[in-house]
Amino acid sequence: MVIDLDRCTGCEACVVACHAENNISTVGEDQAARGRAKHWIRVERYYDGEFPDVKVKFMPVLCQQCDAAPCEPVCPTFASYHTTEGLNGQVYNRCIGTRYCANACPYNVRFFNFYNPAWDKPLHLQLNPDVSIRSVGTMEKCTFCVQRIKAGEIQAEAEKREVKDGEIQPACVQSCPTRAMVFGDLNDPNSEVSRMARSNRATKLLGELGTLPKVTYLQRDSWHAGEDT
Amino acid sequence: MPAKTPEQINEDLLRPLAGVSARYLIVLACFVTVVIAGFTAFGWQVYHGIGVAGIRRPVFWGFYITNFVFWIGLSHAGTLISAILRLANATWRRPVTRCAEVITVFALSIGAMFPIIHLGRPWLFFWLVPYPSERGILPNIHSPLLWDFFAISTYLLGSGTFLLLPILPDLALVRDHATGLRKKIYTVLAIGWRGTPRQWHRLEKAMQIMAIAVIPVAVSVHSIVSWDFAMAPVPMWHSTIFAPYFVAGAIFSGIAALIIAMGLLRKFLHLEEYLLPIHFDNLGKLLLVMSLLWVYFVFAERLTTWYGNEPSEMAVFWLTQRGSYSPLFWTMVTCNFLIPFPLLAIKKLRTITGTVIASVGVVIGMWLERFLIIVPALSHKYLPYSWGTYRPTWVEITITAATFAAMAMLYMLFSKFIPIISVWELKWGQHPEPERDSVLLRKDEEATA
Fold it and tell me: What phi and psi values does residue B265 have, to the nearest 5 degrees?
């Protein structure tokens, strides 16, 4: 995935779409204040300068699907593991809730179910049947909408063809009004996402930690230079 | 101390087993109440969900893991200290070893409960156990939590054996002095100990082997506990100093716990003639060494972090040094060094009261140290947007209090059923070779009679 920070307006449509797609329960005001809110994707806001001369930077942060993910080796039950496609899988049924993965994750993109999820009626009728509900005591996180990836692959196989570039879109990518997010196959050097990831604006979030994230952020150098521009 | 006759020793050390006073029962009832409260709090947490605890994003580990590390650390009191003293043939150790080994077994049992208590789904804890299951997967050997499982179970088994072996002759002694139902129970417990030379020889051999085997196990346990943290790329956790730092801290808190336990036993079981000022003096010196070693480790850890000046690490560094966690940090330094150092370094102050006060400080300080390693680092990880603070709830506080009560309760019960000072070892110490043999022979005659 590539996220163009120069295009992101911080509208949080991706956050809403993610909640709807992935059956992420809301926890209520009290619990949210106690740090129990779950947002598989969040828009981080960073401010540069003093009011009124302020520049705001928005940065959507989601699971970076690291190739060398710190969350994976620490899980004693293989709930967090690397799939053959290169995703960081999270098998909810295996999770016993040691929360070690969330501590090891440098991006803080893992979310814990402190209580059983609940939806006010009639919201329980709008749950996505393709995504399982997570019980109390389990860890959850962004899956890159693995249900959509699987559906796309099955569709392509049925039609006896390869998956087309841009055919599969996670909910956040699909809902982004400024097209700041692009999703595709990084193994295909000609895919749009591969071409953009080679841009000279490309950076990785906390790349110095050596986690080899699969999300690439694009941003002008001026963001690094700060007030000098 | 004038040498006591074996009969005197028997009488003094078996006295606590004879009966209980009203005061004992009241104190025991208080501890039992707190322990029950702890279990209730855990039940509450299982019923309602782990959310009733104070943990949150990003501080996913709080009081429970602090307690886990603290109690596992405290367990280094016994086995390690008593094994080292045995191997070094330090004769003054004789009245001390069992007090220490009992702390190990109980503290380890308490500490080992926390990895289960802290789970989101504690009813599935057995998934950490490697066994061929219908799920078709074994636990992940790459996870330090699995190393914990092996290390702690090995240590529990080893230190349990190390505690029980030298209890056998004393159980036989109680058996020989008891009547009725008690005699029957202790006959079973003593598993046929008759005190023949062959049995003594085997016991000696077994103790020798266990003393040597248990030392590397003890060191490995706390190294592995430290790797729960050091293996994760969290600022201030990911450090090579952690394993020796944790082992030193563990022995430090272990000696302190031992001194406190000995002080209480001396007072309440009237063992003034067995637990002597010299024991507190010697252990006080050991505690002093560990205190200095602890300061050295903290200084080395802090200096390299500060000099490296890595931004994410510095955020945590300043948070503990002069930020919101600094009151706890400086309390820790006071409890672990500023108070114990003069009390232990000045010969006049290194009395029984002095060492016990220093030890209480160390136990508090070491609990804080575990807390300060875990919580500030998690609350200030790399991305400032997700920083957060942690506050424990009544559930966590109750369970924490219950562990201390459980330790006291188990210790009180133990000292009523088994002589807390090794009777036969004391006799050996007081009656060197020629007389010792006669003691043994007498035992033999008693057994055959």
Answer: -60, -45
**Looking at the complex, does the CB of residue A58 fall below 8 Å from at least one CB of chain B?**
no
pLDDT of amino acid B435? 43
Number of domains chain B contains: 1
Q: What is the DSSP string of B67-91?
A: HHHHHHHHTTTHHHHHHHHHHTT-G
Mutate to test the interface with A, among B44, B55, B60 (most CBs of A within 10 A): B60
Residue of B nearest to A100 (CA): B60
Give whole-number Cα distances, B115 to A82, B112, B124, in Å. Answer: 25, 6, 12
**Domain boundaries along the sequence of chain A:** 2-221
Average pLDDT for chain B:
89
CA torsion through residues B375, B380, B383, B385, sign? positive
Distance CA B351, CA A139 (A): 52
**Each residue's pLDDT tens digit, B427-436:** 877 655 444 4
For A33, the closest chain B residue by CA position comes to B56
A46 secondary structure, DSSP code: E
Phi, psi of B154 (to 5 degrees): -65, -45
Question: Domain span at residue B17?
Answer: 6-125+139-433
User: What is the average per-residue pLDDT within A82-111?
Assistant: 94
3-state class of B320 per DSSP? helix
* Residue of A34, A77, A115 with shortest CB distance to B140: A77
What is the reported pLDDT for A62?
A: 95
ipTM here:
0.90
Mutate to test the interface with B, among A96, A113, A139 (most CBs of B within 10 A): A96
Which pLDDT value is given to residue A190? 92
Higher pLDDT, B361 or B180: B361
Residue of B42, B47, B56, B57 to mutate, interface with A, max A Cβ within 10 Å: B57
pLDDT at B33 over 80: yes
CB B62 within 8 A of CB B193: no
Contact B120 A44 (CB under 8 A): no
pTM score of the predicted model: 0.92
CATH at B302: 1.20.1630.10
Helix (H) or strand (E) holding B174: helix B168-177
- Mark out chain B residues that contact chain A at CB-CB < 8 A: 48-51, 55-61, 115, 118-122, 124-125, 127-128, 135, 137, 139-140, 142-146, 149, 228, 231-234, 378, 381-383, 385-386, 388
- Listing DSSP states for A165-216 in one string gives TT----HHHHH-TT--EE---TTSTTSHHHHHHTSTTEE-TTGGG----S-E
Pick the CATH number of A2-221 from 3.10.150.10, 3.90.870.10, 1.10.10.10, 3.30.70.20: 3.30.70.20
Given a contact cutoff of 8 angstroms between Cβ atoms, the answer to whether B10 and B394 are in contact is no
B212 occurs within a structural domain: yes
In this predicted structure, what is the pLDDT of residue A131? Answer: 94
